[in-house]
């Protein structure tokens, strides 16, 4: 009976540890623009992901948000971690003025470590 109890405890520990490792999905359902000269950057779990879809809706870390909330988050980030990496995901049909609007807010707060995600065969399979 004790080997069975040991096996059950080992399984319990395994599943507890495995659920802690799950990564948060920050992606939104958009069609990325293609690029022939994109740089490969190592993945970073601390990266802040801002998304804009084809309907000009804004997303922060995969959750729908507003421009006012983005401004608040940028202000907080500029005070606590101004060198944090920020990734901008936009649909290829997103109007450019919306992208510029978000980039202007980032620049206003002094956040300059920004990258724009493009389609990549390896990453997007």
UniProtKB/TrEMBL annotation:
Entry keyword NAD: no
Similarity comment text for this entry: Belongs to the ExbD/TolR family.
Main location: membrane
Keywords assigned: Cell membrane, Membrane, Protein transport, Transmembrane, Transmembrane helix, Transport
Name recorded for this polypeptide: Biopolymer transporter ExbD
Membrane topology: Single-pass membrane protein; Single-pass type II membrane protein
PANTHER family: BIOPOLYMER TRANSPORT PROTEIN EXBD-RELATED, EXBD MEMBRANE COMPONENT OF PMF-DRIVEN MACROMOLECULE IMPORT SYSTEM
Compartments, as annotated in UniProt: Cell membrane
Keyword set includes Transcription regulation: no
Pfam families to which the protein is assigned, alphabetical: ExbD (PF02472)
Lineage: Bacteria, Pseudomonadati, Verrucomicrobiota, Opitutia, Puniceicoccales
InterPro entries: ExbD
């Amino acid at each position: 009976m004790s080997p069975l109890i040991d096996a059950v405890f080992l399984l319990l520990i395994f599943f507890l540890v495995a659920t802690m490792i799950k990564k948060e999905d920050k992606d939104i359902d958009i069609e990325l623009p293609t690029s022939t000269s994109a740089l490969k950057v190592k993945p970073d779990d601390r990266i802040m992901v801002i998304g804009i879809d084809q309907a000009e809706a804004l997303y922060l870390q995969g959750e729908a948000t507003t421009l006012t909330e983005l401004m608040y988050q940028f202000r907080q980030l500029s005070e606590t971690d101004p060198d944090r990496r920020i990734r901008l995901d936009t649909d290829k049909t997103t109007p450019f003025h919306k992208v510029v609007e978000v980039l202007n807010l980032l620049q206003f707060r002094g956040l300059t470590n920004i990258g724009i995600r493009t389609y990549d065969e390896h990453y997007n399979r």
